[in-house]
Amino acid sequence: MPTTEINTDSMMSEVLEAYPGAQRAMMRRYHIGGCSNCGFKPEETLGAVLKRHNVMNTDEVIEHVKTSHEQEQKLLISARELADLMKSDNPPKLIDVRTPEEQEIVMIDGGLPASQELVQEMMNSWPKDCSIVTYCHHGIRSLDGAAYFIGHGFTNVRSLTGGIDAWAEEVQPELARY
């Protein structure tokens, strides 16, 4: 749990350092931080950003950011935990949310590129309770991918902490790193 307490005077850089998923959380509920029109600068205070977006209940926003952070933490799976799961009788489906160019460099064995066709297949025919682990390069985009699948009704989705980079460092050091 973060040790930095955030408040209306906290700079957005401090908010994001304490709660890396704060921008995702604020975008989801308040449409803050997702595009150039609703974005913010790191040196702006949380209070100034909320005021500009006509969000008056700062305490509610801070509570939402904290709750979202706790929920995101539950989605994370370490490279070691995933390696153990991959050896089980029912391993998770690995969904690679990186770009095709990144996938050309290296992939985890069994990883499926998150192509439009695959996502359509998942939505139309995969059981909503199947085990899915998303991964990217460092574990940031895969959280977005996991949130996307959860938002579409999947109930057993995790995101690889540290992405394929952590996998290569901790589980398969022979894999290319970039």
Write the SSE topology.
Layout (H helix, E strand, L loop, with lengths): L11 H7 L3 H9 L15 H7 L5 H18 E2 L1 H8 L6 E4 L3 H6 L5 E3 L2 H10 L6 E4 L5 H11 L5 E4 L2 H8 L8
Parallel strand pairs: 1-5, 2-3, 2-4, 4-5
Helix pairs in contact: 2-4
Kindly report the spatial arrangement of strands forming the biggest sheet: 1-5-4-2-3
How many domains comprise the coordinates? 2
Mean pLDDT metric: 94
| Strand portion | 5-15%
Radius of gyration: 18 Å
H-E order? HHHHEHEHEHEHEH
Oligomer kind: single chain
The first-level CATH class name of the largest domain: Alpha Beta
Give the CATH H-level superfamily of the largest domain. Answer: Rhodanese-like domain
Strand count:
5
SS summary, helix count: 9
Structural class: alpha/beta
- CATH fold node name of the largest domain: Oxidized Rhodanese, domain 1
Helix content: 40-55%
What's the architecture of the largest domain in CATH terms? 3-Layer(aba) Sandwich
Termini separation comes to 30 Å
- Low-pLDDT runs: none
Which descriptor suits the 3D outline?
A: elongated
Largest sheet: 5 strands, parallel
